[in-house]
Design a protein that fits this description.
mainly alpha, Rna Polymerase Sigma Factor, Chain: A, RNA_pol_sigma70_r4_t2, 84% helix, Arc Repressor Mutant, subunit A, Sigma-70 family RNA polymerase sigma factor
């Protein structure tokens, strides 16, 4: 091991190309501190900087057979760290955008659910108020609103005057509106 420490970067890289992980370890120990500082300048996060350096050396080991053209190890490592650092930042920005999109979608869905809950509550309240109408008034109101019958059709069906139908529907609406005033003023 002591002899490897005395080797040049080029000789260590040649040994690493031949499969010597110890030679790559010497290169790592020789440059990792400076490379971490280089990455730390950009990332401002020591853990992320260490991860980037580790990634660079893993890639270096995995691609060791393809490093014949590398003549300046230090320059190669600085370039690799710069590129890995930029990739790390792009990935972080992409993740941040994705999280922002997820949050916006989640907020939108929560708002929709809230609106649906509010609408469902309003519908339940209206149904409750309709059920509390006097029996004959409720029957006329429901034939008008749910049965889609005209006042004349309701009057013929129930054998009452069309004016009575009109008055009963009007009174039902007034009662429902009056009882829903607080809820409606809160919603609208």
């Amino acid at each position: 091991m002591g002899k490897q420490n005395d080797l040049t970067d080029q000789e260590l890289l040649e040994q690493a190309r031949s499969g010597s992980s110890a030679a790559l370890g010497v290169v790592y120990r020789r440059y990792s501190g400076l490379l971490i500082l280089h990455a730390l300048d950009v990332l401002e996060d020591e853990e992320a900087a260490r991860d980037v350096i580790q990634e660079v050396f893993i890639n270096l080991w995995n691609r060791r057979e393809h490093l014949q053209g590398v003549t300046h190890v230090k320059a190669y490592l600085y370039t690799a760290v710069r590129n890995a650092t930029l990739n790390h930042l792009k990935k972080e920005q992409h993740i941040a955008k994705m999280l922002e999109g997820f949050k916006a979608e989640s907020d939108r869905l929560r708002q929709e659910e809230g609106e649906q809950d509010t609408m469902a509550g309003l519908i339940r309240k209206i149904e409750s108020e309709i059920s509390r109408l006097p029996v004959k008034m409720r029957e006329i109101f429901l034939l008008s609103r749910r049965g889609d019958l005209t006042y004349e059709q309701i009057s013929a069906q129930l054998d009452i005057a069309p004016n009575t139908v009109r008055k009963q529907v009007s009174n039902a609406l007034r009662i429902i509106r009056m009882n829903l005033r607080l809820l409606c003023s809160w919603i609208f």
